[in-house]
Amino acid sequence: MLLILLAAIPAVLSCLAFTAWLPSNGEQLRGYRAAEPCPVRATAQVRENCLSTWQITVVKTEVTGTRSHWYKVTLKDEGSWQGAVDFNHERPLFERLKPGDQVTATLWRRYIVGLSKDGVEQNTVDVPRDELQMYAALGTLVGLLAAQLLVFGAVRLVRPRSCEPFTWEPFGWRILVAIFVASFGVGIPAMWLGIPWWCVPPAIPVVCAAVMLYPPMRRRPPEVWPEDRRTAV
């Protein structure tokens, strides 16, 4: 029963991935790619979906984090506004910035999506990215995890004294490893190669089955008998 109840958590996450996060990020990506520079006399509503520019001043730059660095730039305008943006990398613009520099900020939907100075541009972490493949891969991962928990829990509930092979040994851990290997093994290359995200969910179960059929995954660990333990001692 506990396994069945736990299956609800990844099931909900999988549902959210495909019904909320994936559509939302897809809409943002399409909107950003279609955005054009704002007209001179654009209304506030029009400016929400076009690219506007803003001249601002660099207050300071700093590198935060230990293992994974964030490159932070604090900015201010001629009025009272002051804020900060983050970059994933120090190149090509961050390493050139210093306090007092005048930079051009590009705004989209009230977010600063990029800075530029002397023809050098760099996107901030707020720019929409084409990472829909990983959302699909993670949604599929938690969906398969929910299915595994549900099946294993249901079998244990119906047949508490005879639930093999739906146990941690010999198949439980293999299925879990195969799910993670297949999800990241498909999602990451699909993102790098620009493969459509809707190809990811059907490909993951196929790769998962291939991982399960890989000889080292099929081989059972050797059983240790009592006399073997005595000999080893």
> Total number of helical segments?
7
Rough outline: elongated
Using only CA atoms, what is the Rg? 26 Å
Determine the N-to-C terminus distance: 41 Å
Low-pLDDT runs of 5+ residues are 221-225, 228-233
Q: Helical amount among residues, as a percent range?
A: 40-55%
Instruction: Give me the secondary-structure category.
Output: alpha+beta
Q: Report the biggest beta sheet as strand number plus sense, adding barrel if it closes.
A: 6 strands, antiparallel
Mean pLDDT, nearest integer?
87
Number of strands: 6
Q: Record the strand order, biggest sheet.
A: 3-2-1-4-5-6
Helix-strand pattern, N to C?
A: HHEEEEEEHHHHH
Give an account of the 3D structure.
The chain is built from 7 helices and 6 strands; from the N terminus they run ααββββββααααα. With 233 residues, the protein is an alpha+beta fold. A 6-stranded antiparallel β-sheet has the order 3-2-1-4-5-6, with no helix packed on it. Helix 1 (2-34) packs antiparallel against helix 3. It is elongated. The model is unreliable at 221-225 and 228-233 (pLDDT under 50).
Entry keywords:
single chain, 233 residues, alpha+beta, six-stranded antiparallel sheet, 7 helices, 6 strands, disordered C terminus
Which SSEs are present, and which pair or pack?
Elements: H1 2-34, H2 44-47, E1 52-64, E2 70-76, E3 82-87, E4 102-108, E5 111-117, E6 120-123, H3 132-158, H4 168-193, H5 200-212, H6 215-218, H7 226-232
Antiparallel strand pairs: 1-2, 1-4, 2-3, 4-5, 5-6
Helix pairs in contact: 1-3, 3-4, 3-5, 4-5
